[in-house]
Specification:
Order of helices and strands: HHHHEEEEHHHHHEEEEHH
Oligomer: single chain
Mean pLDDT: 93
Largest sheet: 8 strands, antiparallel
Distance between the termini: 23 Å
Radius of gyration: 25 Å
Number of helices: 11
Shape: elongated
Helix content: 40-55%
Strand content: 5-15%
Structural class: alpha+beta
Amino acid sequence: MRRTLLTIHLILALAAGAVITVLGVTGSIMAFEPEIDRLQHGALMNVAPSGRPHSLLEIGDAVRKIYPGERVDGFTVGATPADAFVVSVPRAQVYVDPYTLRVLGRRSNGGNWLASVHQIHLRLFTTTTWGRQVVRWSGVVLVVLLVSGLYLWWPTKRVRLTTGASPFRTWFDLHNTVGIFSLVFLLLLSLTGVFIGFDGAMVPLAYRLTGSTPSAQVSTRVTAAKGARQISPDRALEIARGALPGASPFNVSVVSPTAAYVVRSRFPEDRTPGGRSLVVIDSYTGRVMFAEGSRTAPGGRRVEILNRALHTGDIFGLPSKIVMSLASLMAPVQLVTGLMLWLRRKRR
């Protein structure tokens, strides 16, 4: 059985090794995606706080003066007083100093290398469905490699690096030592990745296991009374803040005359940049049509949120990001050391 399992372990590693290496490298980068983005574009994202920020309406007008005829689709409020506000326009993001109304610059959507890294991690180098299929099944292979590797390691339980040993022994020790110390974190990454990859089956399973049901879908279409005027996006943020006490609204869509405001919020524990709480508001009456926070969402939804926070390392902030980034890099290290062991064994 041990010899058979070793053969399976080897074949799977050779078959999926290249994809797992790509996922490991891109995953380690994505753990620090917001931090890297800020380092690269600090001139756009950082401002000097001075007094009170201007209203979103005034910020939108400042953008329209620079880009006449441009449609404003939404606003993102800075997480700290030193953050620029972001105005969404078709195919781009415009950064504005909320204190001086100075337009700091414009970035195209998806036009940077971090966006490419993100897409490679999700679906390799293609926009077709086969790339996503390869990624999700590579995650399953990684789980099998980790479990079988633990079984193969168990009889010797070797965790040491021997000085002056032969090249084969050196690679063997590295493979075993790195593998056992990163096992728990790599297993966590791979299992949460499989959950995301097979979300069509895993999310309904989470609802069944928690005995919960998904929240009812709400329409974002609204009907205005004759002569009615839409409330401002600033007012929509205030309403959203009251709908989810303790959560900070940070993004609001600017709607068409027949659509509701959609406001995204985050609680202090929601460290993910996108937030996990949502409020839908009638853009004419201000009525809250739907409100779901990450704290009170159905059990299945909370499992889904927790899974993503574990996978990205957001759950405990910077410390967990560092751990998950390093663990992600250990996957290609394991594959390289395993490949060297195989080549040495063939040579012998």
